[in-house]
Amino acid sequence: MSDISEFITNLPKAELHLHIEGSLEPEMMFRLAHRNKINIPFRSVDEVRSAYNFTNLQDFLNIYYAGANVLIEEEDFRDLAVAYFDRAAQDGVTHAEIFFDPQTHTDRGIPFNVVINGLLAGMKEAEEKHSISSKLILCFLRHLDEEEAFKTFRTAEPWFDRIVGVGLDSSEVGHPPSKFARVFAAAGDAGLKRVAHAGEEGPPEYVQQALDILHIDRLDHGNRALENSELTTRLAREAMALTVCPLSNHKLRVVNDLCDHPVDRMLAHGLRATINSDDPAYFGGYIGDNYRAVAKGRNLSREACMTLARNSFLGSFLNDYETMAHLQKLDAFFHKHHEVDL
Ligand code: ADE
Ligand code: ZN
After folding, report:
1. Exposed site from 73, 239, 268, 304, fewest CB < 10 Å?
2. Tens of pLDDT along 52-91?
3. Class of domain 2-341
4. Active site residue 127
């Protein structure tokens, strides 16, 4: 394991499913609470960590939204992004497409420009410091109604040149993709990419809706698509990238054990599966830990890890030229490792 562990750490990779608010570590939560004079219902970092005992998505979301209350100033959002990229750099991440949830902040009176300008400043710093390129995806909270999503969409309009796409997250069951048909159509008309969480807890029909009604360019999670063989075949035929999050799946009981994780089944079906961290501060690990967890649980080979990393660039929203440059670096890395081992 230690051999593949080091291989995984250094493997060049893209992260395509990361909620920036989910990278808020308890230490930073305390620091920001103090700096912004916000009360949090915990006395210590250990107490926060021991509260991270979820049995489903909603349990987690309640704590995740409460944690975000400490984010107030532009500097806080910048610090949050910088901390994520510093950590991602240690895991061989060379490109990241990160989600943010503006409604979580604007509903508390934090202006949209404070949120996005802070994140963009952190992304710029990461590019300069670590040569990590990045893009922003604005997520709509699906437990709120479509009119609220439209308000956020209109507020974001002046920043459309700095947002690559829109996404859909939060409580899945009871909030089908069809609820957001019009705002996703408007996003498509504006030239934005479209992604959606579907098939995490929700049924395969939600994945179907995400494809047919939201016209997604990428599927977030998608685990439950495997319950429908026609849908699985379609996802493979359309080369739809799936942003799979193993530690999240385990913590939120989408899978009972990492030994049962379907990632290699997805690859065997020809699906463009990728590995990601989702909310690393809450689920016990960053992207490298996620690769290692499934590599161990499913006894993955280096070649399988290589395929997952390759899929991350192929599934990204980089242009063809940029994608090719990343793939060349990945190939060079693999061949160097192979020669060392021969
Ligand atoms: N928001 C943050 N993480 C999420 C997840 N895994 N599913 C849905 N919404 C989320
Ligand atoms: Zn997610």
Report:
1. 268
2. 988 999 999 999 999 999 999 999 999 999 999 999 999 9
3. alpha beta
4. no
